[in-house]
Structure formats: structure tokens, C-alpha cells
Design goal:
heterodimer, A: 287 residues, mainly alpha, two-stranded antiparallel ribbon, 2 strands, 72% helix, 2% strand, globular, B: 406 residues, alpha/beta, five-stranded parallel β-sheet, four-stranded parallel β-sheet
């Protein structure tokens, strides 16, 4: 029984990465209608920016939590301005192919220069060590990841669903022409939204740098699962992707305990089931 | 009628003789480096293996003696089906004479069959499974650098002797992991230890915390990592996070490469024990080669044992072809010649190749240095034990390989 509690908690930790990443994807899809396959690559870039900040500029983990998402967010906005914006109004497939190609290029460039084994990044001193919870040893850093990502997820949800800015955003996706008529600069808002989604991915990258190796392929391994999370939760649904992210982390954690061989398949099995029963996803609105 | 038949027979015999004569004088060689150029094992093989092959060609001086040697390379993406497709194309269309590297046990076993069927040659320097020279041994394959039996034998025995008599395995769920777990279990049990549990994880897993908790709960003294590359480095890093080593359990890296240690950093990797057959800083010969090698690598990496093996294997292959006076393009014949001749090169020293295709040389048990002991980048290992070649690998008396005469 104790082991089960431990697995639940570990699942929740992984779920927080899924939640952060799928949240960014959901924001981008919901607002821009772009299936952002470059999400894994920008997640990886976030981790690399943290690595460079530490090893080149001597800037540690805490500032990196803010700087890396901003740097990568700006990179994302440049991508949106120079490439993605020309695809608005076209079929989803175009955005998917463009971002997929971009992801391959970004990963290829990083792999060319840094190899595949990855680079070391250690846990900040303040978060080293762990607590004995009785049923498991919880590394403090993992606890921090869960709490922090939950806060970020809820803040993002609040920003989009409950504030005036969020209302503009949602309105702009429904009817950009009308919102424009009210004097709102819609293209700029779209660019900023893409920057936000990409920044969230980069933030997840910084959070994961001390746990996993900083590797060029770290995002490629994760992105497929995250897409499954978004599909299960319902494309474009903010709360849906947060809840599904955490839930699937737990489901995967339990699978690792009961039948480890299936642990990297279980998410996709669930995806198939959800698509068969409720194609718009658990919380998604019918298209 | 009879005259016509004999005329045909004479013509056939003549043409056979002619091709035989021509091929013995044929001085062209095509080397195919089949490896992981883009995935999780690309640092330990990859472009470094191709570079090692090119250096072997340059150092051989054969070009000056009228030989024409070409090196080509391809990415098998760690997929046996892709690898066998490339292998068939290389043999049938590109006329490749010899396959080098071929890391990943699943891929190696698949290519092993193609190479045998088409009478080509594979000098495998990257794959771990000891089946290549045991149940699946072939007259066309030489297993050059290391194998699961030898890793288990060296690292496993040393750890059980040091008191690690209960084991829990974290095993990569494919041919390599299964072979490594099987061979290590045999060694542990033979040395008086016990295996009390294990878990199989999918290849290329990012998060090991769930598996590590199970290992922790098992209370085994040794957690044997029967995995490789990114899987191993992630396990080690996350184990330190979960306080596994601090809690008194010991991690056993059954297959670690210098590129893994480099990627982990000494702070995390210090104190780990594991086995390799090559380290760049062993002697003047290895240092001289490694210096030239790292200067030509984009990230200035020192060679891994897989890459060093490519060089060493080709040095011996060239010697055999020179002794034969030309390239007969007959895999089994060349491999037989290679087995006849003792091996000697600056990287692995003197050695032999056994009837089952196993290359024999000493195995070294290393310990990773503490950060303060290291003099600079890539200065990572302390030698703590050497197993002589004749004891390091599976004895022929235990072999089930049909090539071994009993």
C-alpha cells in the first residue's frame, strides 16, 4: 500500500511536466489554431538556455526560471512573425508540417554541436536533499516542481479565462475582424500568445534540466506523449489539458508499478479509447 | 556434341580461374560503418566511429601500395528492420566488404544474419550481447570490444566480492538488456549472491523515479543497471536525487561509456565502478591516437571503446588482406585468415581471435575519479583491477557455438 502512495506521488510529479507542456500547446492551439509540433524543441531550448546561463554567464537556477522562458519566448515570437503568421486561415496540416520541420532543424543543430548524451545541470543548493514522508523519500526538488507548476498552470488559466486581456484573446479567436474593429491589435496579440505558449514550454524545460540530462532529444521523446494528453483532454481546452496532464502522469506512474513494460504505451491506449468514445476529448467542445 | 560440352566446360573453368586470379589481385576495399548517427547512442559510436575508420585507412598506408579504400556510413536509427535493409543494399548494390561498429544488440543480431547469408564480414565493436559469439555465432562475424558476459563477469564478480550479495535489476526491455541481466545473474549466483527482484523499463525512458522507488523498496544491496546510454545516465542522476546511494544501496553500472561519465559530470558519477576494455589515457599508444582523434572531433571528445574498436578492428583486417595479397571479397575466408593471425595494435595491445569470433584482450575495472582528483576534461578513470584476456570472456568449454570444436 505504501508503495502505491509513492507511485501516485511520482506520477503527479511527471504529470506536472505533462500539464505545463500540454497547457502551452492548448493555449497555442486554442488561440492560433496551430498544432505546434515545435513544442518539444522549445522545451529543450529552455533547458539549454538554463545550461548556458549557468556555464557561460554564471547565472544560476532561480534567474534562469525567468530569463530562459523570456529568451525562448522571444525566439518563438520571431518564428511567429516571420513564418507562422502566413499560415493563418490555411488547413491545420500546413502549421503542423512547418512546426515539425522547424523542430527537426532545431534539434539537428543542437545535436550537431552538443552530441546526444547531454550535458550536466545540477539541482540548486536550496532544493537539494529530501524528506522522508514515511511511505517514500521525496526529493525536495520534485516537491517544488509539483507545487510550482500547479501555480503556473492555474495562473495561466486565470489569465485566459478570467481577465479582460484573456477575454480579448478569446474574442479574437472567435472573430478577429470584429475585435479589430474595436481597435485591438489582433496580430500583435496573437504573436504574444504564441510567445506565452512557447515560454511555458521553456519553463518546463528549465524545471526538468536538473532531473533529466540536458539533451537535444529530450523534447522529441516527450512531445508525442504531450500531444496524446492534449487530444485526451480536448484540443484547446485550458483546464482540460491541466487536469489531463496530472491525471495521465498518475496513470503512467501506476502502470510503471503494475506492468512496467507497458508504461510508454498506456497513454496512447487511453487516447484511442477516448477518441472512440468521445472524439472531442474529455473536456473539449464539439468542433 | 561431346566436343561442344567439353568446350563449354573448359570455358567455364577458364573464366572461374580468371575471376579467381583477378580477385586475389583485387586491391579495392569498401568499408561500411553502420551505426546510430542521430539517436541516444550516437555519442559512443556515430560520426566518431566513421572518423576512427578513416584514421585506420590513413594510418594503414595501403593507398601508397596501390590499394583503393572507401569508407561509407549510414544511420540505422536503432531499428533492426532499417539496419537489415541498409545491409542488403550495401552488400548487393554498393559492394561493401565489411561492416563496422553496428552498435545496438537488436540491430547487431539482425545484421549478423544478413552478413552470414551473403558471406560478408562484420566486425562488431558496439553491440553488447554475448550471443554474437555463442548461440548466434557466425563464421563471418568477429565481436571485437566487449560483451555482456565479460561485463557481468568483471563488474558483477568484483561487486559480489566486495559484499554486494543481493541484487535488483533495472533492465532495458530489449535484446541487450535481457542478455546483460541473464549473464550478470549467472555470475552473481555463481559467486554466492542472490537476485531478489527486477523491473524491465522501455528503451529511452526519461523518468526512472518509479522504477527507482521499487528498487529502493527491495532493500537490495546492489541495483544493477542493465541498460545503456541516456537510460543509464538518467538512472544515475535520479538515483542520487532519491538518496539511493546515501541510503546505503550501491549502483552498478553494467555498461557505462566514457561519454556517459562526461555527460553526467564527475560530481554525480564519482565512485562508480564499471568495466571497459579501452581508456584513452592507458599508455602512450592510446594517448597518441586519442589526441589525433579528439582534434578531429567537433566537440573534441576522446574516443569511446566502441570507436577505438573500429580502428583496432580495421588495422587487423588490413593486415589480413595484405597477407592474402589482395581482397578475395569472400567474407568467411578473410575472417578465417584474421583468426589465424595474432592481433596487435596500439589501442588494445596484443590479442587473439577465437574460433567462435570472440576477440580476446584484457578487461579493465575502473572507478570514476572524484572531481578533485581529475586534472581536466576527460580525465575520469582510475584503474582498480585487470582481468587477463583468457579469463575475461566466456570460456570455450561453456560455449554452445557450433564453430567451436569439442
Amino acid at each position: 500500500m505504501q508503495a502505491l502512495y509513492a507511485q501516485l506521488l511520482v506520477g503527479l510529479i511527471n504529470g506536472s511536466f505533462y500539464a505545463l507542456l500540454s497547457l502551452g500547446l492548448a493555449v497555442i492551439f486554442g488561440m492560433l489554431n496551430i498544432i505546434n509540433f515545435a513544442h518539444g524543441a522549445v522545451y529543450m531550448m529552455g533547458a539549454f538556455v538554463a545550461y548556458f546561463l549557468l556555464n557561460v554567464a554564471g547565472i544560476g537556477y532561480w534567474p534562469a526560471l525567468i530569463i530562459a522562458p523570456i529568451v525562448v519566448g522571444i525566439f518563438g515570437m520571431i518564428l511567429e512573425r516571420t513564418m507562422l503568421q502566413w499560415l493563418s486561415g490555411l488547413d491545420h496540416l500546413y502549421g503542423l508540417l512547418l512546426t515539425f520541420g522547424l523542430a527537426l532543424i532545431i534539434q539537428g543543430v543542437f545535436q550537431n554541436y552538443f552530441g546526444s548524451s547531454g550535458l550536466p545541470y545540477s539541482i540548486p543548493d536550496e532544493l537539494k536533499g529530501g524528506m522522508n514522508l514515511g511511505f517514500m523519500f521525496l526529493p525536495i526538488y520534485r516537491g517544488w516542481v509539483v507545487v510550482f507548476s500547479l501555480i503556473v498552470c492555474l495562473l495561466t488559466w486565470y489569465l485566459i479565462e478570467r481577465t479582460r486581456l484573456g477575454a480579448y484573446l478569446r474574442a479574437a479567436t472567435e472573430n478577429p475582424t470584429l475585435v479589430r474593429a474595436f481597435g485591438v491589435n489582433v496580430p500583435r496579440m496573437i504573436t504574444l500568445t504564441y510567445g506565452l505558449g512557447v515560454g511555458l514550454a521553456a519553463l518546463a524545460g528549465v524545471l526538468s534540466a536538473p532531473i533529466n540530462q540536458v539533451r537535444p532529444l529530450m523534447g522529441a521523446d516527450l512531445i508525442i506523449v504531450v500531444f496524446a494528453v492534449v487530444v485526451i483532454g480536448g484540443m484547446g481546452s485550458i483546464m482540460g489539458s491541466i487536469i489531463t496532464g496530472f491525471t495521465l502522469g498518475v496513470v503512467e506512474g501506476l502502470t510503471k508499478y503494475f506492468y512496467p513494460e507497458a508504461s510508454n504505451t498506456v497513454v496512447f491506449v487511453l487516447m484511442v479509447l477516448v477518441l472512440l468514445v468521445k472524439p472531442s476529448g474529455l473536456t473539449g467542445r464539439a468542433a | 556434341m561431346q566436343n561442344r560440352i567439353s568446350a563449354v566446360l573448359v570455358a567455364v573453368a577458364l573464366s572461374c580461374a580468371a575471376t579467381g586470379f583477378a580477385s586475389a589481385q583485387d586491391k579495392t576495399i569498401k568499408i561500411g560503418v553502420l551505426t546510430d548517427n542521430s539517436g541516444l547512442y550516437s555519442d559512443l559510436g556515430g560520426v566518431g566511429s566513421t572518423l576512427a575508420a578513416q584514421m585506420a585507412v590513413e594510418d594503414s598506408g595501403l593507398a601508397g601500395k596501390g590499394w583503393k579504400i572507401e569508407v561509407i556510413s549510414a544511420d540505422h536509427q536503432n531499428k533492426p528492420d532499417i539496419a537489415t535493409n541498409i545491409a542488403r543494399q550495401w552488400i548487393d548494390v554498393d559492394k561493401v566488404d565489411i561492416f563496422m561498429d553496428v552498435l545496438n544488440s537488436g540491430v547487431a543480431l539482425a545484421v549478423n544474419n544478413v552478413v552470414r547469408e551473403k558471406n560478408s564480414i562484420m566486425i562488431n565493436t558496439g553491440a553488447a550481447t554475448s550471443d554474437l559469439t555463442n548461440a548466434q555465432c557466425s563464421p563471418n562475424t568477429i565481436h571485437w570490444v566487449y560483451d555482456t558476459y565479460m561485463l557481468a563477469n568483471s563488474t558483477g564478480q568484483a561487486l559480489v566480492k566486495a559484499g554486494g550479495d543481493t541484487w535488483f535489476f533495472l533492465t532495458a526491455d530489449y535484446a541487450f538488456g535481457a542478455a546483460l541481466e541473464r549473464d550478470t545473474t549467472a555470475v552473481v549466483v555463481k559467486a554466492g549472491g542472490k537476485v531478489i527482484g527486477g523491473v524491465k523499463h522501455p528503451l529511452n525512458t526519461a523518468d526512472f523515479s518509479s522504477f527507482l522507488l521499487q528498487a529502493q523498496a527491495s532493500k537490495a544491496k546492489i541495483i544493477g543497471m542493465a541498460n545503456a546510454g541516456g537510460d543509464t545516465t538518467n538512472t544515475i542522476k535520479q538515483a542520487s536525487e532519491f538518496g539511493i546511494v546515501a541510503g546505503g544501496q550501491k549502483l552498478a553500472g553494467l555498461l557505462l561509456f566514457i561519454t556517459d561519465v562526461h555527460s553526467l559530470g564527475l560530481k554525480v558519477a564519482q565512485g562508480l565502478n564499471f568495466t571497459e576494455t579501452f581508456y584513452w589515457d592507458m599508455n602512450d599508444g592510446t594517448r597518441a591516437f586519442s589526441k589525433r582523434f579528439s582534434e578531429r572531433m567537433k566537440n573534441k571528445a576522446e574516443p569511446s571503446m566502441v570507436q577505438a574498436g573500429v580502428y583496432s578492428g580495421l588495422v587487423h583486417y588490413f593486415k589480413a588482406l595484405e597477407a592474402m595479397g589482395g581482397n578475395p571479397h569472400d567474407g568467411a575466408k578473410v575472417v578465417a585468415k584474421m583468426k589465424e593471425m595474432p592481433t596487435d595494435d596500439p589501442l588494445f595491445g596484443k590479442g587473439t581471435i577465437r574460433a567462435d569470433g570472440r576477440k580476446i584482450h584484457p578487461a579493465y575495472l575502473f572507478e570514476v575519479k572524484k572531481p578533485e582528483e581529475s586534472k581536466g576534461p576527460w580525465d575520469y578513470y582510475k584503474l582498480v583491477g585487470t582481468t587477463p584476456g583468457d579469463q575475461a570472456f566466456r570460456p570455450l568449454s561453456e560455449s554452445v557455438c557450433p564453430l567451436v570444436k569439442k
